[in-house]
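Handout, section 4.2: multi-component inputs.
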Amino acid sequence: MISIVAAAAAVTGPSTAAAQRRGGGRARSFLSSQKDGALRSDSTAVPEVASIVNGTSTEGPRKYMVGLTVEGSRFPTNCGGTLITPYVVLTAAHCMYFPQYPVWDPLDQVLVNLYNTTDQAGVVRINIQDPSEGGEDIIIHPDYYECCQNTYVNDVALMFLPIGQLADYAQINDDPKVPVVPDPLRVMGWGLTEYGGALSEVLLETTVNYISNEECKEAFAGTPKIITDGMMCAYKDFTDACYGDSGGPLFQVDKDGEIGDRPTQVGIVSWGIECANPKYPGVYARVSYYADWIKETVCSRPEYATKELCGSSKSGKGKSTKSPSYTP
Ligand code: 4AZ
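Output:
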């Protein structure tokens, strides 16, 4: 990932003032990385948000997997996301709007049917209206904040796409008892292929194992980071999500090692310290913890409600008093 980033950084940057402003927005994760001191040694290595280290190619697009970018970006994708209904993308809040830096734009271009960022022939590029333009098509979790040196808390956001002909999507896990240690989980993205390396041109995936929050807290003890109930962690030797994979999915894997056609998303790539560092697991937003917020937010917009998402809830946590407005 980092080497793609370096290559991408060499490409001519945004030319208009607006594009420069947008460029600044996209640089936020780079700035975050700088705060960590992680990438300061190479000023051309400019990852914006965290790909997969030691992954394998998905060999083609995944219908539910989207890339996120913004007009004027030097990078083909800056974050990942998942279609959880035909027209709703689940991603990380830190890929979106930072209220404290209103000049920074969210990633408001959604790339569907993307596999190889250097060959976007079959890609559908969807622009959505972001909050800086007065739009309501990006909803960030109301309790999202960043603390403790790039620790993203409640790192969840939803993007509402124009109603179109997109059809295939993943499902969200709403069962707090899932996953169970040490379940294998699949993460995918176009992020860095090694810490300090380049973004991947093709969609990569890898398998990591779920670890408990207790074990994860121990791993980060002695760092300024915190592990909340809304976070979950996964680790496997030598492989990991990395910068640029943020916002992308962590899926359940079945006993045959498959995720299936409609995979179940248990996590959202959120943060970590470096990538595939044996001391530190990758940290994800825990989808079951946010399932009620996701359902309420999506289901309150009748045109976006689906039977799968809006018909029932297992967790019962934080349910709205409003009934879901799904129309069969
Ligand atoms: C990031 O900042 C990030 N190694 C995401 C995942 C990991 C590290 C950083 C996990 O977007």
